[in-house]
Every structure is written in C-alpha cells, then in structure tokens.
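Page header: ASSEMBLY MODEL / three components / 471 residues total.
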Amino acid sequence: MSRIKKCTGSLSRVIAARLAPGCDLAESIETIAEEENITSGVILSGAASLRKAVLRNVGSFPGKFPITDDVRVFLTRTDPLELLALSGNISTREGSLHLHCHAVVSSGEEDGRAYGGHLMKGTEIFSTGEIVLAEITGCEMIRLEDPETKSAELHFQ
Amino acid sequence: MSRIKKCTGSLSRVIAARLAPGCDLAESIETIAEEENITSGVILSGAASLRKAVLRNVGSFPGKFPITDDVRVFLTRTDPLELLALSGNISTREGSLHLHCHAVVSSGEEDGRAYGGHLMKGTEIFSTGEIVLAEITGCEMIRLEDPETKSAELHFQ
Amino acid sequence: MSRIKKCTGSLSRVIAARLAPGCDLAESIETIAEEENITSGVILSGAASLRKAVLRNVGSFPGKFPITDDVRVFLTRTDPLELLALSGNISTREGSLHLHCHAVVSSGEEDGRAYGGHLMKGTEIFSTGEIVLAEITGCEMIRLEDPETKSAELHFQ
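Prediction written out in full:
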C-alpha cells in the first residue's frame, strides 16, 4: 500500500478574517469554519500579534506509537509575540470539525528569535490577527484512527 | 459585536514572481500588486535568499494602545539568510496599497536558527526571491482606524 | 530590464496529501507532483512531525556567484521535530520536475526553538505529514541558468 495518500480537489470559497484583541486563535478559526460550514480546508495565511502563545512539541521519541503527553513538551509564553506563520488544515473527526495547525512566533525579548510548535487553545491575540483560509472542494478530508500511528490521521474520501 | 470580522470571496489571479539580487522584498511585492492592480490579496508563498533583513518585534506590552516604536525592537541583520516563510496580505488604506507581512528567516552563522518579525523595507534579496501571491475577489480588504487598537486594522466591505 | 519577472495565472487543481511514517518529505512532494503531472505549482501548506531534518543554509557570502557548497552549512537533526511551515514551488528544469522548498521546524529539546533552511532530501516523517499543494495554470514555471547568479533561477513563459 502506498505510503502517500492523496486527493485532488480545488479551492472554492476563501475566507479572510480579522480577530480582535483577546480572541483565542485556534477557537476563532474553528468558529469561522463552523459558521461558514467548511469541513475540508487549508489555512493559507496567518499574521498576528499575540499576548499569549500555547504550543506543543515532542521532547523525545516515544518507545512506540501513539505519541502521548508523556513525551510532549508544553510551552506557554506570555510576552508580546508576532505570529509569523500558520500552517494547517480543517477536517472532520467523527462528524466534528477538527483543526490541525502549527505556528511560528517571534519574541521581541530575544531580538526576534523564533519558536513554534503545534498550536494549542489558549493562544490569544494581542492587537490583531489576520487569517486567510480556503475551502477545498472535491476532496473530503476526515480523521480516522490509524493502525500504524494509533492516532487520528488525515484520510480522504 | 462579534470579535471576529470576516468576508467570503475567492482567489482569482495568481501572480508568481522572481526577484533578482538587490531587490527590496517589501517594495517589490508592492510594485507587483500595483502593476497588477491587486487591492485585496494574500501572500501564498515566499522563499528567498537574503543579504539583509530588517524586522520589527514588540519588546514589551505598551501601557495602552496603540503600539508605538517606544516598545518595539528593530532588528537589522546583514549576514546571509534564507527566507523561510512569508505571511501576509494586501489591502488599501485611504486609497493607497498597504502590504502587511511577517517573515521567518534562518541564519547559517547559528546553524539554522530562525528569527522573524514584521517585514520592514530594507530587506534585500541576495541571490533570488520567489514569491506567489493571489488576488481575493468578492471581498474588499481595507484598513480603517480601529477605536480599540488605535491602529489601521483590516476591515471588509 | 526589470529586476522583477512575473507571470499571471490561476490555481487549478489542489492536492491534499498525507505522508506516512518514514516518508522522505521532499521526495514525496516530487512523487505527488509527478503522479499528478504538475509542472508549475506552489506549496500551500505543510505541517508534519519529523524524525530527521536535513537543511541547508549559507554560512558566509561567496566572493562571487554562484553560491557553492564551500560557503554552505548543512544541518542534520535527528531529534523529534515539528514541521511548522513549508514554502516553495514546483517548476521544471531541462524537462525534469524541480522542487524548491524552504522549511521551518521546532525542537522539543530546546523548548520550541525554531530552525530552518533549504529543505534537502533525507528529511523524514515521524508520525504524519500533511501537505497541500496547488497547480498554477496559465503560467509555465521553468528553471534556466541565470547569467547573474550562475544558478538555475525561476523564469516564466
């Protein structure tokens, strides 16, 4: 079986959004997708200033899949940060919307040094958040439990 | 009032561009948008090598909005850098084109460590710059003074 | 002659893909493009977990073009990494598919610190890789030897 699963579609609706101070970045993207009824989509752009970032990385390889919180490193920063890049997608998992997103941020405290990880809830807009996402049509993106990674991975149908 | 403002459109024209050595990255994107008459758009991709980067971050929270240069940290680097990601959009402010862009760069001096911030003019291409941007139609993106942040924030009409 | 070369097209097919553990990131994107016969395209999104990253930066300015391996710094990491952003494009060079891609990754070992550079072959998926790329039509992207940089730079026809 191929190690690459893929699906061909096209971009249909594009949503540009502006998030006000205090908005939760991940929750806001989920709200937008829900309100617009987008179940398969891609984040095209994210630029923002943040007052709080909650990010997750993997600190060491687990002995076997799945990756669990035992080996994860959770990072919470509360200094002013610029959101530099936001990569991810929107799918559904057991019928509910699922956002998967990775973020890069920079800190003024360390002269622009960049940090990043899996975007967690709790990440908050400082002055503004500018997001563009697009619906993918012709390609239904769903999360199904994967026998290899023991996690809900992206599938297409 | 909702803390999320949004607008639904679609991508129409896509411009791929190659910038030669010495081009100013921000000014070149503005030139492309002006020549193509793109007033609402999104940066889809940016990969380049740079000989100079001028970036801006926020060093400490201001007592109140707006964010001013008093609390900002300006970073100028003149070592060889790779532009790793470019996120942002094109709108108009009082009828003039406005580019808002955040950049991630890496340095060979520190074994690939990444830095970033708000992209400023003065950032120069070293060998090549490869940019893809897209026009958003059906959604007019404009900057208006925001009563909360006291800055020109993204609005849609 | 203008220092900015550009071309106007539109996005047609969009390919979403999921890469399984052990896939080579760069080779997988090339495989997808080849199988789908995409000769001009842009990476819209990349989020993944990695078990190995091979990245290239420029350590010092060469006396003259071209940039060669003498001044480059090659970085190989084998700790668990998150792929945070992937920027680049697909073109052809002498009739063969050519992927040009820059990557940002973060490490759990150093609390989310970010690294990056030119994506090299050898970069391997740990648990999953989620990629979205789009075909650009109306704009043929090819690599031709450039008399100024002495490298194969992006041209349009």
